[in-house]
Amino acid sequence: MKWIIRLSLLVLLFLCGWLLLKLAPFWTPVLTTVKAVFIPFFIAVFITYLLHPLVEKLHHWGVPRTLAILFIYVLFFGGIGYGVYKGIPYMVLQIRELVSNIPAISKTYRNWLLEVDHHTSRLPRSIHLRIEDYIQSAEHYLEKSAANVIGSIKKIVDYFFVLIIIPFLVFYFLKDIDVIKRACWYITPRKWRKEGIHLLKDIDRSLGGYIRGQLFVGSLLGAAAVLALWLAGMPYPIILGIIIAITDVIPYFGPILGAVPVIFIAFTISVKMVLIVAGIMLVLQFIEGNILGPLIVGKSLHIHPALIILALLAGGEIGGILGLILAVPVFSILKVIVVHIRDHRLTAKIDKMP
């Protein structure tokens, strides 16, 4: 009888999923509207989470709360606004230059492969065909990626009036954070309040410093990379610096992923440029690994490196680059939740003992 009930539930779930897919033309517009409303909301919540400790620290030093909020608010959004205003035109220009130069870059690598093919003519034909397929796939991937980036920038411009709401939401969230906390306290069931507070505090203790530190270190490293690559004469320094800043958030594999496109483009210029770029990347990673990382990020996660690597492998398989970026934070949150569930059950068993 149990197996019949389970099988019936499985069939019912399958039918519900099938019906949901058939009704996609009806709920897709609703989902689009919900996304348009909630994405700015969640972004504002995340920014509030990043800035709240700074506001509290200034307030603790004797600065009035409203003045502290205005100072951090203007500094954060003013810096971002100025960077976007000055940087996006150059970034779009460099992306277009990169797209137009992709055929020349791929031609350079093709010529090298022809030389390799000439000197390795004894190898099976299938190996040479496979290498050519890899080059064509890489060329198509670069063109598609560059086009997607340009399309994303255009979408950001299209959603400007939606995104402009975010600074206002952040200001009111920072201003009324105590009211929000009290509201969350009252709408939470009484039996979950104590455990919920402990859970959120442990997640913040484990993850908060890590996220803020990684974002700050990534921003510093990206800005230093842009400046160093520009001084070295590398093309597309803004694009490459942004790639380095984003991939630096990924533990262990991030520096390698960030260095690959830089070295790839440097090879098309000269061997001297490859050596210069390699030296720049080594210096940046030395500074990040031995000075900025331990000083700013620290070791707040308390997760074994083997588990972090497994989480990165799973995240990369599920979500690509985005999965690699989110793998460690998500794993850290799941770890805290599992520990709390274990401790809660252990406490319940002890309470039941005579």
TrEMBL record:
Subcellular location: Membrane
UniProt-listed InterPro entries: AI-2E-like
Pfam entry (one): AI-2E_transport
UniProt keyword annotation of Transmembrane present: yes
Topology relative to the membrane: Multi-pass membrane protein
Transmembrane segments: 36-55, 67-85, 156-174, 215-232, 264-287, 307-334
GO cellular component, one term: membrane
Keywords from the named record: Membrane, Transmembrane, Transmembrane helix
GO biological process: transmembrane transport
Statement: the UniProt record of this protein carries the keyword Transmembrane: yes
Similarity comment: Belongs to the autoinducer-2 exporter (AI-2E) (TC 2.A.86) family.
Record-given protein name: AI-2E family transporter
Species for this entry: Fictibacillus marinisediminis
Lineage of source species: Bacteria, Bacillati, Bacillota, Bacilli, Bacillales
